[in-house]
């Protein structure tokens, strides 16, 4: 068997280190490009998503006015003693809870319209999580969902 010199061994180690570094760099660039494309897709669709919130805001406003009308109807019904006072009280409580939920929904929609960055942050976070999971599966760090369990 032929003996290797220390110089040849060091040369091979440097080449292996360079090879591993280049592979790692390629994987990082691929992940970076995937994240950039996801963020670009989110930013392209951000305007569309924000315009879709406008009908939601209009719907919340109309439902809120309908709840106000419902409360007025309940007041009129309770004055005529058509329905038991306990039932009217329960209906008023339900209307109040619904009004509170609609107010919260309206505030969330207003926040998204005022600061679209919230929507972009959520989408970017989801994209990064998804890419992280893909990278783990690609590198064999995690078993895929369809892999047979042993």
Automatic annotation (TrEMBL):
Keywords: Membrane, Transmembrane, Transmembrane helix. The chain crosses the membrane at residues 12-33. This is Methyl-accepting chemotaxis protein. It comes from the Bacteria.
